Amino acid sequence: MKREELIAYDNWLTGNKWGSSEIITPEQAADLYLAENPFPPAGGAEEFILSKIADFKLQDCYPTFVPEMAQVMTEFAALHAQRLAEKMVEEKLREELIAYDKWLISDDMGINYATTGECIDAYLKTRER
Known about the structure:
The protein is built from five helices and no strands. It has helices at residues 3-16, 26-36, 45-58, 65-105, 116-128. The longest helix has 41 residues, at 65-105.
């Protein structure tokens, strides 16, 4: 996770979690943040393959169908793999946000630092150990 991502999350926490009277868990905060700041989609693998199949149905050249379909399936597999990789990155980000939030609330760690940047630098140093 990049320092800039933690700063964005910390700013979001300050404006949403700490600024409200509602007490939520680090897990809930991470889920809310990711819902409001989602990753861009991988590119619509399902829509891509359906459009290619529709294109093939419109063509009269069925002898070229098999090689072209193989290409479509290869491209679909690549898009699907990209989606899985993005999901893994998102889950890792969620775990990091939860860890950061828990660190902040343990013994009021976040209060000991003058700025968000200093706070995040201190947190990132704990990860290096």
